[in-house]
Specification:
- The chain is of the alpha/beta class and about 375 residues long.
- Helix content is about 40%, strand content about 25%.
- It folds into 2 domains: about 160 residues, VC0802-like (2-Layer Sandwich); about 210 residues, 3-Layer(aba) Sandwich (Rossmann fold), CATH 3.40.50.620.
- The strands form 2 sheets. Strands 1, 2, 3, 4, 5, 6, 7, 8 and 9 form a 9-stranded mixed β-sheet that branches.
- Strand 7 and strand 8 form a beta hairpin.
- It is elongated.
- The chain starts with a strand and ends with a strand.
- Bound molecules: adenosine-5'-triphosphate and magnesium ion.
- The site of magnesium ion has 3 residues, from loops.
Length: about 375
């Protein structure tokens, strides 16, 4: 049997929520590792142990662990008795052949009833490695850190450890309706929400048949990409062109953008309601474009009756773009499309919409009827991972 020891951020897991979080992480890992072949996940003394029958599946497992929120780090580990002589011998045996000049041993005891302290274990195993390999102990920045985790009668040891994405297990923080355009920002915003434990329900507004389906296709590709973090996703495609046309014929041009946004908010909320979402989330960043000025954000917010989250509000475009590259959504986002908002965009959108004016413009629209009409024409796509 091969083992992987995974750690979660213990600080994030303090208090009464801890068992809930660990259960959720185990549950998510079971989904993430689906189809890997015989593998078993257990929560053991503050960490998770994954047992794997076929070591050749590691290359498939590794990227999946790297996308599982809640995991701080993970390492393929070897198992041996925690008897100190046997442990020392096993460590020496395993690292033989590694080109090794400097190293340190970092032991941890999950079980404080072990007869030796962690410092004792470091010293004894360290001395054995020095004797066997001639390598030198350096505490600062050694070539190799040999980690030992003692748990009862057994010990796990490893020297190669990988970073997980951190965050909280998806599902811990409820569901959020994420407005997913085909752009760079909104997939990053959805990712940030998922990383804080939210399950994302995706909503995309498209201008088809007035424009091509390109933006919807990008939204599908982005939803599929993000599904690796939550295993199952719903994407709602909302035909928005007709609604925009109605706004265009009734409202003054400078108000259009804000009116579109307020309609998006109402429809997204309706979708959110049917999916038990507690909040909306968008990729707005303060001041980036006309619809994201302080004044317009205030007026768009007013149309929402549930919390309206903007996880990127304080980030600039360079930071968001780098983030998009890191999470693998950038290449899709930069594909050309015709966003529904570029359809009927006024040449001089207002950057300080006045709520009274907006309300007056909306009084000429059948707001409820338009939401209802959108809900009737909505299309649902589902995605799964793996
Ligand atoms: P993005 O890169 O996310 O498109 P952007 O800088 O282009 O952002 P806007 O077009 O003003 O900014 O959109 C702001 C936010 O509104 C988006 O991040 C997204 O959450 C939401 N949004 C805009 N257009 C759509 C759309 N067609 N469908 C779904 N959500 C949208
Ligand atoms: Mg956009």
């Amino acid at each position: 049997m091969y083992y992987i020891i995974a750690h979660y951020h213990e600080l994030a897991l303090k208090g009464r929520n801890r068992p809930l979080l660990v259960d959720r992480l185990v549950q998510n890992l079971r989904l993430a590792l689906c189809g890997i072949g015989h593998c078993h996940i257990e929560s053991l003394a503050g960490r998770l142990r994954i047992s794997l029958k076929d070591a050749s599946r590691w290359s498939v497992m590794k990227p999946r662990l790297e996308s599982t929120f809640g995991i701080a780090n993970f390492a393929p580990a070897l198992y041996v008795s925690s008897n100190i002589e046997m442990l020392s011998a096993a460590v020496c045996e395993s690292i033989q052949g590694l080109p090794l000049h400097t190293f340190r041993v970092t032991a941890k005891r999950a079980d404080k009833s072990y007869p030796l302290t962690s410092v004792d274990v470091n010293r004894i195993v360290g001395a054995a490695v020095v004797e066997r390999t001639g390598a030198q102990v350096i505490l600062g920045n050694p070539e190799l850190t040999i980690h030992i985790e003692i748990m009862g009668a057994g010990a796990y040891y490893y020297w190669e450890r990988f970073q997980g994405p951190g965050g909280l297990p998806v599902g811990m923080s409820g569901k959020v309706a994420c407005l997913l355009s085909g752009g760079i920002d909104s997939p990053v915003a959805a990712y940030r929400m998922m990383k804080r434990g939210c399950k994302a329900v995706f909503i995309h507004f498209h201008g088809h048949p007035f424009v091509s389906r390109a933006s919807a296709e990008k939204a599908e590709e982005l939803a599929q990409r993000l599904t690796r973090h939550q295993y199952y996703s719903r994407l709602y495609l909302v035909p928005f062109g007709d609604i925009q046309r109605q706004i265009v014929v009734t409202a003054p041009a400078p108000l259009r953008i804000v009116l579109y946004r307020r309609m998006m908010v109402r429809i997204a909320e309706e979708v959110g309601r049917t999916n038990e979402c507690w909040a909306l989330a968008t990729g707005d960043s303060l001041g980036q474009v006309a619809s994201q000025t302080a004044g317009n954000i205030t007026v768009v917010d007013e149309a929402a009756t549930i919390p309206f989250l903007r996880p990127l509000i304080g980030m600039d475009k360079v930071e968001i773009t780098e983030h998009a590259q890191r999470i693998g959504t950038y290449e899709t986002s930069i594909q050309p499309d015709q966003d529904c908002c570029s359809l009927f965009t006024p040449p001089n959108p207002s950057t300080r919409a006045n709520l009274e004016e907006i309300r007056r413009a909306e009084s000429l629209l059948d707001v409820h009827g338009l939401v209802k009409q959108a809900m009737e024409k909505i299309e649902l796509k589902e995605f799964t991972f793996p």
